[in-house]
Specification:
The complex is a heterodimer of chains A (268) and B (300).
Chain A: E1 9-14, H1 24-37, E2 40-45, H2 57-73, E3 78-84, H3 89-101, E4 107-110, H4 121-131, E5 134-140, H5 153-162, E6 168-174, H6 177-184, E7 190-193, H7 203-211, E8 216-217, H8 227-235, H9 241-262
Parallel strand pairs in A: 1-2, 2-3, 3-4, 4-5, 5-6, 6-7, 7-8
Chain B: H1 10-20, H2 32-37, E1 45-52, H3 65-74, E2 77-84, H4 93-105, E3 112-116, H5 125-135, E4 140-143, H6 145-148, H7 155-166, E5 170-174, H8 197-203, E6 208-212, H9 220-229, E7 231-235, H10 244-251, E8 257-258, H11 268-277, H12 282-297
Parallel strand pairs in B: 1-2, 2-3, 3-4, 4-5, 5-6, 6-7, 7-8
The chains are: A alpha/beta (268), B alpha/beta (300).
Chain lengths: 268, 300
């Protein structure tokens, strides 16, 4: 590692796409090579080499197989989140069983297959709670128009209010973070991740002010995004050292702790 | 040496210094404190993408010049090419450029190098260009085609490039002020199509053109074509993707890549950490940090 940072850094949001490599293992290895240069010690990885907006069961099984292969090669560096499609509810629940209940994965990733306030998510969330699995939901508010079933932070707040015992991560802070942060402010079981938009000065300061540092996790969205640009949102923020430590690793550790403990995975 | 700097492992420090010692290139660090306290021989940076005054859509740390200057100095910036965010919406660009010039003068040592703005859709824009060169002796201009609503095949814009080149002014074009998905709802800022530049730059061999924040609107292959067609540079503020710089210099001439932060809209650390994320080699790093910009400005 070129640099030794004073912080422990866990990344809540990475992918195998956008990274060179012929196999999932090779891709994760390359991703870790870049992570090492910035002192990032653990990665949460989800979705496979080839993505689809509304994956069929075969699609998401294939993508989850990619992730399972990748994390098996780096068990001490990477955690897997299972990718599901709420429109394929039965198959999604089976996949949750395969990858989380019976497999090594520790969380759920939901992307743009269905609006996240839809009732079809409820059985998935209930099962996630029983497994202590964290749910990371993609959210965006695009001036240019969202995809047909792309979720907003407001929709995630609705879902989270229906399931106060579940833990959600509002991915990308909704893109327009000044709105996204407000949207989830009154839903304490929702954390935000800071990735997937430009390194706009002030985002982390606002999130700390409005949500408290305990509700923010660092994520990069690498390989599509740069670890550097996304890490800058925390390292460059005018917040306390304690807040940085929580955001960079402490909060993700805390929400993953129950499932890691249940699986006998040490995370200190 | 600070407590934090003491946390540098000796091995990491040796690796770092060893890789950079040949040219004095220190690249960057993983946090502000590590930067400043580690005793690493940092490279002096030339940041070609900084703006003074207030971003119209939010207040940010650094939109007051003393804080901006302190931040740049803390990060080892020895020269910053600065435009004015007032130029985005103000139409009295004569006053905007005067304030920019005067603000830069307030901070001695040549840290802030002003780049005034010209809007080729305003009446008598040529007078702005004349003042920028003759009255203020600025080395270049910074253009905001998205906020000023012109395309890059507009004849007035092409004439501006021709006149700027004849006056030996560097031209910086901000190809994207903000991600089009997140701009303020009442602002209709068009996405700029850079393709018309291909035809323009090939006809103006003396033009020195810097594309700021180009990567959301231009593919790297188009940028490489532009660099082949003319004297075209890019900055790294908007560069994304893991290992983005490593990937960029495989297809775009490394000698035309400039360090740019887009501070204070972006966190300054973003651009700097990209120099760590990618392994570039000492010569290329030195060029990106400062050498390419110095050469462009005619200093070396």
């Amino acid at each position: 590692m070129l640099f030794h940072t004073p912080y422990e850094i866990w990344d809540a949001h990475t992918h195998l796409s956008g990274v060179p490599g012929k196999t999932p293992e090779e891709r994760l290895g390359n991703l870790l090579r870049y992570a090492d240069r910035l002192g990032i010690s653990r990665l949460c990885v989800f979705m496979g080499v080839r993505w689809s907006y509304e994956p069929t069961p075969e699609d998401f099984r294939q993508q989850n197989d990619d992730v399972l292969r990748a994390i098996a090669a780096y068990p001490d560096r990477a955690f897997g989140f299972v990718y599901l499609n709420p429109k394929q509810l039965d198959a999604s629940l089976e996949e949750l069983q395969r990858c989380v209940a019976q497999g090594p994965m520790v969380g759920i990733k939901l992307w743009v297959a269905e609006h996240c306030n839809a009732p079809s998510l409820d059985p998935i969330v209930r099962r996630a709670v029983s497994l202590n699995a964290v749910i990371l939901q993609h959210t965006y508010l695009k001036k240019t128009g969202n995809l047909p079933f792309e979720s907003t932070p407001m929709e995630l707040a609705e879902l989270a209010a229906r399931h106060p015992d579940a833990t959600f991560i509002c991915a990308h802070s909704g893109g327009q973070w000044e709105l996204g942060i407000r949207a989830i402010r009154k839903t304490p079981n929702v954390l935000i991740d800071l990735c997937g938009f430009d390194p706009t000065n002030g985002v982390t300061e606002m999130a700390v002010r409005e949500l408290g540092p305990e509700r923010i996790v660092f994520g990069s969205d690498a390989g599509g995004r740069s670890f550097a640009s996304q890490l800058a949102k925390v390292l460059g923020a005018q917040i306390s050292e304690d807040a940085k430590r929580l955001i960079l690793a402490g909060n993700l550790k805390r929400v993953l702790q129950p499932i890691l403990k249940a699986k006998g995975i040490a995370c200190e | 040496m600070s407590e934090l700097s003491a946390q540098f492992s000796k091995l990491a420090r040796r690796q770092f210094l060893g890789s950079m010692a040949l040219t004095g290139v220190g690249a960057a660090v993983a946090c502000e404190e590590a930067f400043c306290g580690a005793g690493v021989d940092l490279p002096p940076l030339v940041d070609v993408n900084v703006n003074l005054f207030q971003w119209p859509y939010r207040r940010v740390s650094g939109d007051q010049t003393p804080i901006l200057v302190e931040t740049l100095r803390r990060h080892g910036v020895r020269q910053a090419w600065v435009g004015s965010f007032e130029a985005l919406l103000h139409r009295d660009l004569g006053a905007v450029n005067r304030r920019l010039f005067e603000e830069c003068q307030r901070f001695p040592g040549g840290l802030l190098v002003p780049f005034g703005t010209v809007n080729p859709k305003l009446p008598d824009w040529q007078e702005e260009l004349r003042r920028i060169e003759e009255q203020y002796r600025m080395p270049g201009v910074r253009l905001f085609p998205d906020h000023h609503s012109y395309t890059l095949d507009d004849p007035d814009f092409v004439e501006l490039l021709r006149l700027a080149a004849s006056r030996k002014l560097i031209v910086q074009i901000v190809l994207m002020s903000e991600d089009e998905r997140t701009v303020h709802p009442i602002v209709n800022v068009p996405q700029i199509d850079p393709k018309p530049l291909l035809a323009v730059v090939s006809k103006l061999p003396e033009l020195r053109l810097v594309l700021l924040n180009p990567f959301r609107v231009a593919s790297v292959s188009l940028l490489a074509e532009l660099a082949s067609a003319g004297n075209v540079y890019v900055d790294i503020a908007g560069l994304e993707g893991v290992g983005g710089l490593e990937n960029l210099v495989k297809v775009f001439p490394a000698g035309r890549v400039l360090f740019g932060s887009y501070f204070p809209v972006f966190y300054f650390e973003s651009a700097k950490l990209k120099l760590i994320e990618s392994v570039l080699g000492a010569e290329i790093s030195a060029g990106i940090c400062a050498g390419n910009a110095d050469r462009l400005l005619g200093k070396s």
